[in-house]
Amino acid sequence: MPPTADLIKGKDVSSEIYSELSERISCLKSKGVTPGLAVILVGDDPASQVYVRNKGLKCEELGMRSITVRMPETTTEEELLGKIYDLNRDPSVHGFIVQLPLPKHIDEDKVIDAIDPKKDVDGFHPVNVGNMLIGKPGFLPATPAGVQQMLVRSGIETSGKHVVVVGRSNIVGKPMAALMVQKAKGADATVTVVHSRTKDLPDLTRQADILIVAIGKPRFITADMVKEGVVVIDVGTNRVDDPSSPKGSRLVGDVDFQGVSGKASKITPVPGGVGPMTICMLMANTVAAAENSIR
């Protein structure tokens, strides 16, 4: 089936947001404040290394201050909590994140709980999660917030629409559902969450006006699982074998792009769809944290 869907590209949406952030950063600097983002990286996970480097490059590009705290795999939980304590009290650091995953001997929940909610630009602290759920201002998790911005800035009406979220992770699925059900712009939707234990899952995905997929299974959503004209946001990133590629593999989403794009009205590609939005929204949260620090 030939693709008919319009592409929603994260690069286009993030460029618009970065332009707005640049103006806000200039305003902050005129008041003597340079937004500062710190990242704690424990160990040497290759994917985390790339992600942290990209965050640093984007900070420099925007004229923000970037601090990377590298700690060895053998770092104890107590040592990591001590570093978090220091960053919580450093006035030049407006926001910081602890890059996940952490080594198995460190309790991720204890680490997240130790971050000052006012500096929790990942939006994972229970205070920020609670604020998101009840619709109070706070830091939103970057990927779900990025998806919402893609919908709003692409002119996709969400009010009264049926949004089906495939996946229930704490990082994407649950917060995505919480955002879309709010009384707010880019929300006001009727939301269904489906997951690995859902019965008759294709029956529910076929009801979606907007389908947001974050289940971590390559090409899981196929053309027979969606209705004509659906808007599809593919959050998945999976590396699959591909002998025709010079690297022997390539990235695909959780949606069978070739088949589904023949029925969808709009769809995000992988790569190049949701991916660029995650760092973009992290930068937006950091700028907001800097603004909050002088209010």
Question: What labels describe this entry?
Answer:
Rossmann fold, alpha/beta, three-stranded parallel β-sheet, six-stranded parallel β-sheet, 39% helix, 16% strand, single chain, globular, 295 residues, 2 domains
SSE inventory with pairings:
Layout: E1 6-7, H1 10-30, E2 36-42, H2 46-62, E3 65-71, H3 77-88, E4 95-98, H4 108-114, H5 126-134, H6 142-153, E5 162-166, H7 173-180, E6 190-194, H8 201-205, E7 210-213, E8 231-234, E9 238-241, E10 249-252, H9 257-260, E11 266-267, H10 275-293
Parallel strand pairs: 1-11, 2-3, 2-4, 5-6, 5-7, 7-8, 8-11
Antiparallel strand pairs: 9-10
The average pLDDT value, as a whole number, equals 96
Distance between the termini: 54 Å
Q: Assign an overall shape.
A: globular
Strand content: 15-25%
Number of strands: 11
Compressed to H and E, one letter per element, the order equals EHEHEHEHHHEHEHEEEEHEH
Strand order, largest beta sheet: 1-11-8-7-5-6
Task: State the CATH architecture of the largest domain.
Answer: 3-Layer(aba) Sandwich
CATH C-level class of the largest domain is: Alpha Beta
List low-pLDDT spans: none
CATH fold category name of the largest domain: Rossmann fold
| Structural class estimated from helices and strands | alpha/beta
Helix fraction, binned, reads: 25-40%
> Biggest β-sheet, characterized?
6 strands, parallel
Notes on the structure:
The protein has two domains: 32-116, Leucine Dehydrogenase, chain A, domain 1 (Rossmann fold); 140-275, NAD(P)-binding Rossmann-like Domain (Rossmann fold, 3-Layer(aba) Sandwich), CATH 3.40.50.720. It is α/β, with parallel strands linked by helices. The model has no long low-confidence stretch (mean pLDDT 96). It has a six-stranded parallel sheet with strand order 1-11-8-7-5-6. The protein is 39% helix and 16% strand. It contains ten helices and eleven strands.
